[in-house]
């Protein structure tokens, strides 16, 4: 499984022959100026919620690739009104089987509205179970006891957790979340893009070390294999 980071909370997963993109916010992000959105290939686009810093480039990438957008019922309706046809609506607690594995939509504690102010349903995270790896993509969320339900149903290999504070968990809460989900490997997200979520990387790495967790802070454009 290859993972490429495009900044903020946007990751592209290459799972077998399938390319699965999460929360594309690239073109307005000055930190991701080296990334050409039109070069990104995606079969599926998973959107955790409707805020602009998670959906901005979804329509363009979906049109370029004939991608299927997977999101809450309200978000897929919004894209349907824009003329997109490859849409899979979900809601919290639901699960769908796709060519690369299963996707379960789980609870996130966060607000959600689309860039024009349209109600976007509730914010969500995803648990993705593939043939070789299972991972938890938290989206934007506070620390919540609901996370403790995840390892009761899934054997999670790693988690992608927000660490930027202010709008989401900080790194301290993220390490507790990692304990709740029962993972030792965490990929950090939702940091540095805006002044409100700037982090001290040395400090957050020390927090992770003290929690006995492996915290991975990817560079924009970097690809790793897990």
Intertermini distance? 6 Å
CATH architecture: 4-Layer Sandwich
CATH class equals Alpha Beta
Looking at CATH, which topology would you report?
Metallo-beta-lactamase, Chain A
Biggest β-sheet strands, sense, barrel: 7 strands, mixed
Q: What value does the average pLDDT take?
A: 97
Count of DSSP-assigned helices? 6
CA radius of gyration is 16 Å
- Number of structural domains: 1
Instruction: Encode the helix/strand succession as letters.
Output: EEEEHHEHEEEEEHEHEHEE
Which bin fits the share of residues in helices?
Answer: 10-25%
What form results from the Cα inertia axes?
globular
Order of strands across the widest beta sheet?
6-5-4-3-2-1-14
- Low-confidence spans: none
Name the descriptors:
226 residues, alpha/beta, Metallo-beta-lactamase, Chain A, seven-stranded mixed beta sheet, 20% helix, globular
General description of the model:
There is one protein chain. The chain has 226 residues and is an alpha/beta fold. It has a single domain, classed as Ribonuclease Z/Hydroxyacylglutathione hydrolase-like (Metallo-beta-lactamase, Chain A). 20% of the residues lie in helices and 28% in strands. The chain is built from 6 helices and 14 strands. The protein has helices at 52-55, 58-65, 73-81, 150-153, 171-181, 201-210, and strands at residues 2-5, 11-15, 18-22, 44-46, 68-72, 87-90, 95-98, 101-107, 124-129, 134-137, 158-162, 185-189, 214-216, 223-225. The strands form 2 sheets. Strands 6-5-4-3-2-1-14 form a 7-stranded mixed beta sheet, covered by helices on one side. α6 links the parallel β12 and β13. The longest helix is centred in the last third of the chain and has 11 residues, at 171-181. The chain is globular and about 50 Å long. The model has no long low-confidence stretch (mean pLDDT 97).
């Amino acid at each position: 499984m290859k993972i490429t980071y495009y900044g903020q909370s946007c990751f592209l997963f290459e799972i077998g022959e399938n390319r699965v993109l999460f929360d594309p916010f690239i073109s307005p992000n000055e930190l991701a100026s080296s990334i050409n959105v039109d070069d990104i290939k995606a079969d599926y686009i998973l959107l955790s919620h409707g805020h602009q810093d998670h959906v901005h480039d979804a329509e363009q990438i979906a049109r370029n690739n004939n991608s299927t957008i997977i999101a809450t019922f309200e978000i897929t309706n919004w894209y349907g009104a824009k003329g997109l046809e490859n849409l899979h609506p979900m809601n919290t607690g639901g699960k769908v089987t796709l060519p690369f594995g299963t996707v379960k939509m789980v609870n996130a504690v966060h607000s959600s509205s689309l860039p024009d102010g349209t109600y976007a349903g509730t914010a969500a995270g995803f648990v993705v179970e593939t043939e070789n790896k299972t991972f938890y993509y938290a989206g934007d969320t506070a620390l919540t006891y609901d996370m403790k339900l995840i390892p009761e149903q899934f054997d999670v290999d790693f988690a992608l957790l927000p660490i930027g504070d202010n709008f989401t968990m900080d790194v301290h809460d993220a390490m507790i979340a990692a304990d709740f989900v029962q993972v030792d490997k965490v990929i950090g997200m939702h940091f540095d893009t805006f002044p409100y979520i700037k982090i001290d990387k040395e400090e957050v790495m020390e927090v992770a070390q003290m929690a006995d967790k492996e915290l991975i802070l990817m560079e924009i454009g970097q690809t790793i294999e897990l």
